[in-house]
Amino acid sequence: MSEVTLIRGATVAGAPQDILLSGGIITEMGDNVSAPAAQVLDAGGLIALPGLVDLHTHLREPGREDAETVQTGTAAAALGGFTAVHAMANTEPVADTAGVVEQVWRLGREAGHADVQPVGAVTVGLQGKQLAELGAMADSAARVRVFSDDGKCVADPLLMRRALEYVKAFGGVIAQHAQDPRLTEGAQLNEGEMSGRLGLAGWPAVAEEGIVARDCLLAAHVGSALHVCHVSTAGSVEIIRWAKSKGWPVTAEVTPHHLLLTDELAVGYDPVFKVNPPLRTKADVQALREALADGTIDCVATDHAPHPAEAKETEWAEAAWGMTGLETALRVVQLAMVETGLLDWAGVADRMSVRPARIGRLAGHGIPLGAGGPANITLYDPAAPAETVSAHGASKSRNTPFAGMALPGRVVATFLRGNPTVLDGKLSR
Ligand SMILES: [Zn+2]
Fold first, then answer.
1. How far is the CA of 147 from the centre of ligand 1 (A)?
2. What digits encode the pLDDT tens for the residues 71-101?
3. Mapping DSSP to helix (H, G, I), strand (E, B) and coil, where does residue 100 land?
């Protein structure tokens, strides 16, 4: 496709618009835009969103290329409508130095499917003992602003305080995986009726909520930004709502799977439903949806966590934690949030692009579509007939909990700085 593209008749904020892309930016937007030399893409009936941004992706490279690579993970991202992803630090080696974050950043640029913004580890080796070189990662070519030990909780309150103090100087944010390690020793499934029935060790809501409450207080005390990863309980929502009502610098995300699935799915002991934090109850799902709708939870983040088949196709207790999610995120959000009347498409643009880019301190993304802005665009067909999700996608791994489920909608095209990464639902490069 030529460098100049005219998207004809896409719906933006409820009204059909023509969008002209040239030189990586949106040069014109409105009715009856004419551009004789442009490649025309008829987008009647399609929703145009600013390119989606994921705050929480596991790309697994370096070290676990059997599960995912930057190449395959960003291809999955593009197919899901994402133009930028934040790559979590729990790689091998851990992304706890300028060298590793620069490596991941460079691999992202080479792959070209989506911008890759590395997240730096908070502690050396994710060991929770000593702060990593946060300043060196911030000053590196990767310009890291989000730090997280995700997969593990920064459980030591003094270390968490020091991390918040450190990143305050350059406007960074600590993204916490809120899991009290002592309260979740051996835990397998949300503590409740299902864990009792299945004889799986329970993972109590308080193990998340206790850390969320403590960290909100620390963020307020230090005056530095906290982001709460993958909120999964109604109680966490209440704590975050309270912290925000105080004006504290706290943001939060929810995953697509926690917006749709419950612990009842564990009934057949299929480890595809084993995830950290665990799937919770219907009441939690409802509270999470309402919190995303009212803005208490700022954004959707996938926690895309690919694993090779042998790590998931085993007994529940032995299986790896996590689910893939990039390719299905927008469709799940349509089902859980749009079709329930909780969010309109402008709301989806805000929760899946604008706010995650802002929280991730990501320049050039999350900017509402308009003339002069970057040509990062997702074209989505919400009326596409519900199609059954296949486990076989662009991701190297197949551990999607949505396999076999009928989800509505279809990502038709994705543009990264005016270049199509996806056209007609297929990778274009
Ligand atoms: Zn996590």
1. 12
2. 999 999 999 999 999 999 999 999 999 999 9
3. helix
Q: What tokens were used for 168?
A: 């305050």
**Helix H or strand E segment including 16:** strand 15-22
What distance in angstroms lies between residue 199's CA and the mean position of ligand 1's atoms?
24
Cα separations in angstroms, 200 against 195, 197, 266: 5, 8, 10
Reply yes or no on whether the pLDDT at 56 is more than 60: yes
Alpha carbon of 255 to ligand 1 centroid (Å): 10
Distance 233 CA to ligand 1 centre (A): 14
**Phi first, then psi: what are they for 416, rounded to 5°?**
-115, 115
**How many distinct helices (H) and strands (E) make up the chain?**
13, 21
> In which band, very low, low, confident or very high, does the pLDDT at 13 lie, cut at 50, 70 and 90?
confident
Record the tokens describing residue 209, joined without a space. 């909520």
For the segment 125-160, what is each residue's pLDDT rounded down to a tens digit? Answer: 999 999 999 999 999 999 999 999 999 999 999 999
Q: What angle do CA 349, 355, 361 make, to 5 degrees?
A: 135
Q: Which of 378, 429, 343, 313 is nearest to 54 (CA)?
A: 378
SS3 214: helix
Residue showing tokens 């892309």: 21
**What's the CA gap between 355 and 335, in Å, rounded?**
20
pTM (two decimals): 0.98
- In this structure, the strands spanning 146-147 and 202-203 are unpaired
DSSP-assigned beta bridge partners for residue 86: 117
The pLDDT-based confidence of 236 (bands split at 50, 70, 90) is very high
Which residues does the annotation mark as catalytic? Answer: 303
Is the pLDDT at 193 greater than 90? The verdict is yes
Over residues 15-29, mean pLDDT: 97
Q: What are the CA-CA distances from residue 308 to residues 58, 324, 400 (Å)?
A: 13, 11, 12
Task: Detail the DSSP E strand segments found in 78-235.
Answer: 82-87, 115-118, 146-147, 173-176, 189-190, 202-203, 225-228
Tokens 């790689």 locate to: 91
Q: Tell me how far the alpha carbon of residue 350 lies from the centroid of ligand 1, in angstroms.
A: 23
Is 80 exceeded by the pLDDT of residue 429?
A: no
Cis previous bond, 271, omega within 30: no
Tell me the residue length of the chain.
429
